[in-house]
Specification:
By secondary structure, the chain is mainly α. The chain has a domain of 54 residues: Zinc/RING finger domain, C3HC4 (zinc finger) (Herpes Virus-1), CATH 3.30.40.10. It contains 3 helices and 3 strands; from the N terminus they run H-H-E-E-H-E. Strand 1 and strand 2 form a beta hairpin. The site of one zinc ion (ZN) has 7 residues, from loops. This is E3 ubiquitin protein ligase. Belongs to the BRE1 family. It is found in: Nucleus.
């Protein structure tokens, strides 16, 4: 019996010891579990946080993608503009080349024209010299012609007077002949009277007495004939055709 008790006690002691150990281990495990829970919780909260970050990042990525699309469109549009501008530049360079060619041609033409203008100016100066010389010669010739003309006119005037004198002398001869032919003194007297009357009568109208003189040629007529001629613009001497003006015909007084 004693032995059994002792064994039982011993066993109880071992079991109690074991129980204590178990409890100790249990509390240690609980401690560990708590720590794990804490760690788990920490991990959970970190995961939530990272999920949020991920979502934000995704949204941001979408926004950026949209921006990329927009920018790609803009870049395409800019590229088109650039291509158009390049095309324009090509066209403009072509026209610049054309214009430069034309400019070169025009400059050549201008040089030619310049040379021609210089030559023309030279020949114009030469011609001017010639012209001046010819002018001087012409002036001399005109002077000579004027001198000769006035000399000729003087000669013509003298000739006319001489012809009139000849006519007068012829009339005198006629009269002498008539006097010779007519026997009586009365007939001679009558002839002489007729001649003096004719001498005193206006040769233009053959009616009125001579009472006016032309101071250009000194031919004598009646005043009415000269005034009529002046007023009807036939302003020339009836005998010699010399032109006369308002101050060239004057009244003549043959008083007895
Ligand atoms: Zn008259
Ligand atoms: Zn006259």
């Amino acid at each position: 019996m004693r032995m059994e008790e002792e064994a039982l006690l011993n066993e109880m002691e071992v079991t109690g010891q074991a129980f204590e150990d178990m409890q100790e281990q249990n509390s240690r495990l609980i401690q560990q579990l708590r720590e794990k829970d804490d760690a788990n919780f920490k991990l959970m909260s970190e995961r939530i946080k990272s999920n949020q970050l991920h979502k934000l990042a995704r949204e941001e990525k979408e926004v950026l993608n949209e921006q990329v699309v927009t920018l790609a469109t803009q870049v395409e549009a800019q590229n088109q503009v650039v291509r158009k501008l390049e095309e324009k530049e090509r066209i403009l360079q072509n026209s610049v080349a054309t214009v430069e060619k034309e400019l070169a041609l025009r400059q050549q033409a201008m040089e030619v024209h310049k040379r021609k203008a210089i030559e023309s100016a030279q020949s114009a100066a030469d011609l001017k010299l010639h012209l001046e010389k010819y002018h001087a010669q012409m002036k001399e010739a005109q002077c000579v012609v004027a001198e000769k003309t006035s000399a000729l006119e003087a000669e013509a005037y003298k000739t006319k007077r001489l012809q009139e004198e000849i006519a007068q002398l012829r009339r005198k001869v006629e009269r002498m002949k008539k006097i010779e032919m007519a026997g009586t003194a009365d007939e001679v007297m009558a002839e002489e009277i007729r001649e003096y009357k004719e001498t005193l009568t206006c040769p233009s109208c053959k009616v009125k007495r001579k009472d006016a003189v032309l101071s250009k040629c000194f031919h004598v007529f009646c005043y009415d004939c000269l005034r009529t001629r002046y007023e009807t613009r036939q302003r020339k001497c009836p005998k010699c055709n010399a032109a006369f003006g308002a101050n060239d015909y004057h009244r003549l007084y043959l008083s007895t």
